[in-house]
Amino acid sequence: MNENMMHENTIHENTIIDLSVNIAGIRLKNPVIAASGTFGNGKEYSQIFDTSKLGAICTIGLTMPPRDGNTGIRIWETPSGLLNSIGLENPGIPSFIENDLPFLKNLGPAIIANLSGSSSDEYIQGAILLNESSVDMVELNISCPNVREGGMAFGLDAGTAAALTAAVRRVCTNKPLIVKLSPNAPSIFAVALACVRAGADGLSLVNTIRAMAIDTVNRKPVFDNITAGLSGPAIKPIALRMVWDLYKGLNDENIKIPVIGMGGISNANDALEYLMAGASAVQVGTASFLDPFSMLNIIDDIQSFMETNNIQNLAEISIRG
Hints:
Mean pLDDT: 93
Strand content: 15-25%
Helix content: 25-40%
CATH superfamily: Aldolase class I
Number of domains: 1
Order of helices and strands: HEEEEEEHEHEHEHEEEEEHEHEHH
Number of strands: 16
Strand order of the largest sheet: 3-4-7-8-9-10-15-16
CATH architecture: Alpha-Beta Barrel
């Protein structure tokens, strides 16, 4: 073994890998977050693997009153992706806080409450309760395409998004506020900038892309709600480009806030692409349906990538220009 090889091995062996990230003042042990709507409230997955290894868990979409969700078919597989029309089925925020949150807190990762609603008043009332709860962060969902009222309607226009963000910010004083953006907005950057100026502590993107499927045998739309949300590998190049555009745009405005990227992440290479595009953390959703251990594999493989490349912390991961 020559002197250069010995030196390289010494660096590799002595490299201390730090996977932790700071999201609006909340430390996550690693950048991998279970995405909203794909992890339930943790009870099923906690029976399969050690969920304490995750960076954070984002809850199902929570509304003030309980919701039964949409009728009819709600999941439909499509090439390289998944269509869903769940419709924010959830037990309601008061029930969640009393019955589900204590279990989630015991799992170990940070807990991000995904706040949804049909009206500004409903969002505000939900934010008041979550603000006094033990959740670590609130993710303001203004981008769900699978409900007839509210949801994505708040996230398509910059003015509407800013007004709702400001209203929730006024009552959400104890928790970092992350706003979840829609890829269906005419200008996702305009919406993002408006939300930041209205008080958002961070941004997450993208939610599912509005799509549909047709049952050709019966000659009718597959979903009762007609349209649904497309997720999975099919949307990754689009979502990745949006994260890159947003990150560069925020830098041009000299705005430094965390961006959480999501959309089609199936493995560590996908996650690394998002991190290199400017994301501080990533959410993994659809991949967990195919392989429940996908998030743990992503965490392990990111660490291996950092060890191989003598990278000590995630801040050092970026595109080489």
